[in-house]
Design brief:
Elements: H1 2-21, E1 31-36, E2 41-46, E3 51-57, E4 62-67, E5 73-78, E6 83-88, E7 93-99, E8 104-109, E9 115-120, E10 125-130, E11 135-141, E12 147-152, E13 158-163, E14 168-173, E15 178-184, E16 189-194, E17 200-205, E18 210-215, E19 221-226, E20 231-236, E21 242-247, E22 252-257, E23 262-268, E24 273-278, E25 284-289, E26 294-299, E27 304-310, E28 315-320
Length: 321
């Protein structure tokens, strides 16, 4: 028994080292990647310690971002370069860039990890990159003007696109690669989030200060929820019970109960909160505060802010993997 006690700690240490090297999800908390459009960088936050553990260059003005299914590649829109920056997360350095079109904005990835889509403001289209080749595959024209975000439904069938200057949401059938509907919403639609079962989408409208709830099967508006001043980002809890809305003019985040479609509380954060992301377990919400140059961390259970993490200049978006 005494010899076993001497051997076991060393064996466990070796196993822990090996698991960390292989990227074991059991021993390693996910990372939050924050695009800093003012400093041209991505800040890397360890969500276990809530410390910045790295920084990567990401073009001139990084905004939208998404992580590949294998966690190896980070895809980031770079507005001035009209490109999709592809960053190697293992080496934490830039890889090849993909030419997209004038002024790319929001970025998301299909549930199967195959496609990365970017809203192209200057061409009123969605550029689609194949993650297998890391090359532009095709583009889908939208009817609305100045697309801001393009977000997949969790089942991968639909793509909802917020037309920032069209006061509408364009709905694309991704299989046929065609727009199938347009839903009029409030002025200046921005962030979009789906319930986990793909049944409803929540859309923040910045100039209307409302969240519009759209039935993803009938495309009908089923609720309008009063939010804060300049409602912007949307994040949906993985359990589906709560939707979070960042209110850029009020420096806070509203929490919507999805059963009642009512705001149940409001949580103060930094100045000009933009886009947000939740940890996979739904326990923490990370909010990019553009004018505070930090990220607020919210405990979703207590609905309170835990801390602020300094990052780069003008943080715009967050993705967690």
């Amino acid at each position: 028994m005494s010899s076993l006690r001497r051997i076991l700690p060393g064996a466990l240490a070796c196993l822990a080292t090996l698991a960390a090297t292989l990227g074991s999800p059991v021993l390693a908390a996910p990372f939050a990647y924050v695009s800093n459009e003012g400093s041209g960088t991505i800040s890397v936050i360890d969500t276990a310690s809530d410390q910045v553990v790295g920084e990567m260059p990401a073009g001139i003005k990084p905004r939208g971002l998404a992580v590949g299914a294998d966690g190896r590649w980070l895809y980031v829109s770079d507005q001035p370069n009209n490109s999709l920056q592809v960053l190697d997360l293992n080496a934490r350095k830039p890889g090849p860039a993909v030419a997209l079109g004038e002024s790319p904005e929001g970025v998301s990835i299909s549930p199967d990890g195959r496609w990365v889509v970017a809203a192209i403001e200057g061409k009123n289209e969605i550029a689609v990159t194949d993650t297998r080749t890391r090359k532009l595959a095709f583009a889908i024209q939208v009817h609305g003007k100045n697309p801001e975000h393009a977000v997949f439904s969790p089942n991968g069938r639909l793509l909802f696109v917020s037309a920032e200057e069209g006061d509408a949401v364009d709905i694309i059938d991704f299989t046929s690669r065609k727009q199938v509907a347009q839903v009029a919403v409030g002025a200046r639609p921005r962030g979009i989030g789906f319930l986990p079962d793909s049944s409803r989408a929540y859309v923040a409208t910045e100039n209307a200060n409302e969240v519009f709830v759209i039935d993803a099967r009938t495309y009908a508006i089923v609720a309008r929820i009063k939010a804060g001043l300049r409602a912007n980002g949307i994040a949906v809890h993985p359990g589906g019970g709560q939707v979070y809305v960042s209110n850029g003019g009020d420096a806070n985040v509203s929490v919507i109960d999805t059963a009642s479609n009512q705001v149940v509380t409001t949580i103060p954060v930094g100045q000009r909160p933009w886009n947000m992301a939740l940890t996979p377990d739904g326990k923490k919400l990370y909010v990019a505060n553009g004018r505070s140059n930090n990220v607020s961390v919210i405990d979703t259970a207590s609905r309170s802010k835990l801390r602020d993490i300094p990052v780069g200049k003008l943080p715009w978006g967050v993705v967690i993997k």
